[in-house]
Design a protein that fits this description.
This protein is globular. Helix 3 runs parallel beside helix 4. By secondary structure, it is of the alpha/beta class. The chain contains 10 helices and 13 strands. The strands form 3 sheets. A 7-stranded parallel beta sheet has the order 5-6-7-8-9-10-11. The chain has a 3-stranded antiparallel beta sheet with strand order 1-2-3.
Amino acid sequence: MKAHYINHKLRFKFPAGTSRGVLLEKPSSFIILEENDISGIGECSVIPGLSIDPEENYQQKLQDVCDWINAGCSVDDIDLTQFPSIAFGVETALLDLKTGGKRLLFDNEFTRGTAGIPINGLVWMGDKAFMTKQISEKIIAGYRCIKLKVGALDFETELDILRNIRKHYSAAEIELRLDANGGFAPTDALEKLKRLSDFDIHSIEQPIKPRQWDAMAEICRMSPIPIVLDEELIGTAPNESMLQQIKPAYIILKPSLLGGFRVSEQWIQLAEKNHIGWWNTSALEANIGLNAIAQWTSTLNPSLPQGLGTGQLYDNNITSPLEIWVGKLYHNRDIKWQTDFF
């Protein structure tokens, strides 16, 4: 088996606002494994400021991994603990290689194009007019679950946006999820959650910054809105004691930030053992990574809308069979993968 990698800088179609700042572009790398004239491709996707992968020697680690594989080293012997995005890329490249190098990692109704995965529509931070426009577009497109980024704008403005949604759509018509990205302070988080609860919120992700387990446990205990752990899982090995201490309502799995499918499945097993719900979310990957996560998700028979709609964010993404119809992600086998990229 031989290995090499290429880099690709993804360009957002619009300034993507979060409580950590505005994103205009995002780096991704693709690792290609070749054997017997078959190529398996995996995406190594990082989000600066969120991924734990060390930025200063990331490219060197990618090159080292390729050099070790080219020298005959077993992938299982390569320590990628500190580089979960590379672990994810290698895992999915191997899976692609083993299944024929056609980006068809699993054979089921989703990959055959006969079933879709319900997903949430993601609304990015911006001024009130920009967010309201996104919400209208998502509803017109048929989404029945909408996720809004909160925590960076003026809080009263965010309340006004939610108030306007609920003026026109009940919770039975539109499910609202919020994502604070750790933007609330522990001292006022509960008061904000109380005010947000007036709008029939399904759940809110990571109201405060991670690694404050006592404070998060108290928020989970007292919050009128179900709490979801997201960033709390990044950089943490599957940890049952943490889940038992905090007692969240849900956890979110981002395989490219956690270290791949095997690690994510360990988190899911712990969550289900402790009666905690879960859903999977892409983490701003290009369509290579999104495709892998969507296909893996389809094997788990999820009961909740998933966060898999981020492939449409970029103006220089890789053309793929993934498409969205009426709030569901489909794999349309009539659409071919872009062949001139790799």
